[in-house]
Amino acid sequence: MPPAERAPWYERAATKDERTDRTRWRLLDERGRQRWKYLKTKKEADEWPQTAADRFHLGLDTQLPDQSPAHTPLEAVHNGLSFFSELQLDPGNWACEYGGPMFLLPGCVITWYVTGTDVPEETKTEIRNYLWARQNKIDGGWGLHIEGDSSVFGTAMNYTTLRLLGAPADDLRLIKARALLHSMGGALMGPHWTKFWLSVLGVYEWEGVNPVPPQLWLLPDWVPIAPWRWWVHMRQVFLPMSFIWSHRYSHPLTPLTRQLRNELYPQAYAAISFAAHRNSISPKDNYHPKTALLNTINWALVNVLPPVMSTIQKRAEDWVYELIQMEDANTDYANLGPVNAPMNMIARMIREGVDSEPVKRHRDRLDDFLWVNKEGMLMNGTNGVQTWDTAFVIQAVVEAGVAQDPKWHPMLLNALKFLDDQQIREECRDQAKCYRHNRKGAWAFSTRDQGYTVSDCTAEGAKSVMLLQALPGFPTLVDRSRLEDAIDVLLTMQNSTGGFASYEQTRGNATLMESLNAAEVFGNIMVEYDYPECSTAVVTGLALFTKTFPDYRAEDIKITMKRAVDWISNAQRPDGAWYGSWGICFTYATMFALESLAAVGDTYASSKRAQAACKFLLEHQNADGGWGESYRSCEIQEWVDHPQGSQVAQTAWACIALMEADFPEKEPIARGLKLIMKRQQANGEWLQEGIEGVFNKTCMISYPNYKFVFPIKALGMFARRHGDAALI
Ligand code: LAN
């Protein structure tokens, strides 16, 4: 074998931009566990033909037929469903690219590198392709998310990723990225997560990283800042991060990382005093500057406390490791998300060795996060959107009034089977010990394996099941006792405010805890918050349940609903809107809030709140009849028009909102729907527009199925309310 062939994958330079054969990729879906497979031989490819869904996700021609032109809303629903039903996967769920964040792949690729993982050529090729495609054309950098301005975080991390995947340093695109990075001060100016990951790789020094002490996990539970009180995503990331930090683990230098040390900084690596740069951060990355309190704590942790901390270091590491093991066991190594999964893998390698079973299990599970689209391969924000999107499809079809159409019966039945299969049936082992919330009866956002209760996913899951099972021709797969379990979980999740958060009740004080927010790039991440979206899902879920089963915990449900709706009402802003935390932005949350108000009979005719909300929406309707809101709304918390004008998904949200409020005039709604219908393609499809979702105020995330689900729902709702006369 020539030497170049024998060198490890990461030492071999890519010489040209290859592309893999798009006709060879298949999405494997095993009870919701999704992985992309590349079929190497023609024989394999012939035996496992590509489906329309594969082709759709890969950006190939779906070969789905054109429909007769739609003139009425229900015709558009029919065409939309004809297309969208073809994207359903065998186990009954829908899937999609769930990208947006630009900081996920780097964690995965650095982890592969330091764990000596053998990465298939096609994976390397397509990740490179994706990163090239997502490089900002003007300045050559990358941002926090795909539509964001270039930052040190995005640029340093993705530059490093491309190099690890074989892109040569003298590639013109990398030369440009490097110049930009240097102009921003180099990787020294990165936020905490950049410094952490680059230290793991061995191209930054640990003394330049603010402390992540595992000793915090030894704080008694009553302490107001004890980690069990943090938002689950923060504490589950902090967990392995603290273990790795405590070991100051760095991969041994290789020829490639030696080169990276030269490339990531404008100055010579040996000349850098890393300790002086713990707090250096570029203004482009500093959305949530560290507080004086946090800076003082960090100072003490570096300068005063080490002797004390070292006395409890071993105990802390052992306890943290036990928690990591519990997370792996409770999720079958799927883990909460794409940030803690690779970090857990490194922690397991540190303690048990690179060839250990846990490392192998992690390696296998990381594939669940990867997704192939027309640009290349990316890392999804979760291991999929299985339960969430499937529940929404069911509701859209039911709300559209077409669930009884025999044409959609097999699709809906399969979707129901999927939700049946995905309900979580048992509590976690050691639930209290690892600080997990109840989960028996819940639905997760993605899969049962991942297994984390989410308030609104549970509510939407239960709602969809109840809606279908109430219809003639649909079997009762999820029996009453299992629905009661779902309701029992929901009833444990209400906050003292009356609102509902995402995964758990709020466990800590927001002001105190946000003052310890060390991530710099995100806002409102340290504890759980109440959300109009989550609260609404619970209200409507409870409402449907109590209507279906009036004799189960009726009083508890009534009180819970009342308190939740009161909270939602009070969360309305003076301008009439609600701020959205998971979709962009005011259109999204206002749709949910108005649904809650409607559930208790508060609509335009009687409610000042509903009137103010409708007024807000109408003020933002564009001349073409649609709505379009930029992701900047989420950042600055004021309405910002979408630079590309009206968006199909947001237009559908606004129309649904107005209909939920029973807005008396049909004209503005009809104008919105006309826009949606005009944008529908001949085959029933809607094309991808701007990004739809958000988290932590600053990071955008794609929900590509929303452009199908919400237009279908809006069009059908309109037809039910105002008749199915031709609109276009
Ligand atoms: C999600 C995705 C789904 C989302 C909704 C169900 C839509 C929401 O209503 C409740 C919160 C939830 C479950 C949610 C929380 C935060 C997630 C998991 C994400 C936005 C997807 C990705 C994000 C996660 C935190 C990304 C990893 C990044 C870190 C900062 C750890």
TrEMBL record:
Highest taxon above the source species: Eukaryota
EC number: 5.4.99.-
GO MF, one example: lanosterol synthase activity
EC category: isomerase
Keywords: Isomerase, Lipid biosynthesis, Lipid metabolism, Repeat, Steroid biosynthesis
Chain ranges of the Squalene cyclase N-terminal domain: 86-373
One Gene Ontology term from the biological process aspect of the record: ergosterol biosynthetic process
A GO CC annotation given for this chain: lipid droplet
Keyword Repeat set for record: yes
Ranges where the Squalene cyclase C-terminal domain occurs: 387-718
Gene3D superfamilies to which the protein is assigned, alphabetical: 1.50.10.20, 6.20.120.20
Family per record: Belongs to the terpene cyclase/mutase family.
Record protein name field: Terpene cyclase/mutase family member
